[in-house]
Task: structure prediction
Amino acid sequence: MKKRIVIVFTGGTISMEIDESMEAAVPSKKGEALIKRIQEFSDIAELSFDHFLSVPSPYISISDMLSLSRRVKSHLADPNTDGVIITHGTDTMEETAYFLDLNIHNDKPIILVGSMRNISELGYDGPSNLVAALRTAISDEAKGRGVLVVMNNDINAANEVMKTHTMALDTFKSLEFGPLGIVDHDKVIFYRNSTHRRLHIPADRVEERVFLIKLAAGMDGELIDYAVNQKAKGIVIEALGRGNVPPQVVPSIKRAIEEGIYVILVSRCPMGRIADTYGYVGGSKHLKSLGVIFGYNLSGQKARIQLMLGLGYRQDPDYIRSIFEME
Ligand code: ASP
Result:
């Protein structure tokens, strides 16, 4: 029997075309119509469509992610549904994917897919990416792996993947360990399991007052002070290297912690973990002694999503520490 897959549309380049007057890509009805045509030439699954949103992904808000999560959960609750595919712009795809991965506890495949080229461009990659996503969604091997991102025939786990290039078709990468698997014509092949332990945060609200601040050489704590003054509930700091900050940032971090703000430390390096290697003032070990929580190898944008969901679920220091420091 054919598997039943729901395709939820949210927008993105996969459903955009060039508007001649603007000479730029904008959301288009044609994109969705073209995607729907895969039903005509694909006999691999029974499809149904859900028009959830039609926006570029920089428009996707955190509350959109929460509503999308509810929508996906309701599709998955239908015993006739075997999996869900979400079409999404690539700019914020990794964040929506990670949000859903944390929030939805279900072994049925959930796949995010998009395209790097729009329908007016030569080599539009929407239909081929969507067929690869479909093949993954109907694969028994894809069950229980959390939310997956399928682009350019690579299958990546939501908790590892990052958009790494502004225009390349193979932009989505799990930089440290490579993709979980590939789609090779009609075959879906998994080479490995995700390296990260799966985390479930069953929040039905999010705490949006979480700031993400990237540090660079010579910066001081002004932006952190701003977040504190703005009544932040949490601050994610993208620190240098193994998790270090310039010494003049330290008083602001101290103040944030004293005010009861959760401060999560990650690295601005795209690969590797932070660790308490350095003991000098502003070094990661010193920051840990002040009460900073380590986000290990999460990117800043994923740590922010995790903190928003975590605080939405339980504003309790032990709980928040446990979801970041579990390894
Ligand atoms: N700016 C587009 C978006 O994220 C890019 C894309 O979809 O590839 O909606």
The mean pLDDT is 94. The two ends are 40 Å apart (CA to CA). The first helix runs from residue 29 to 36.
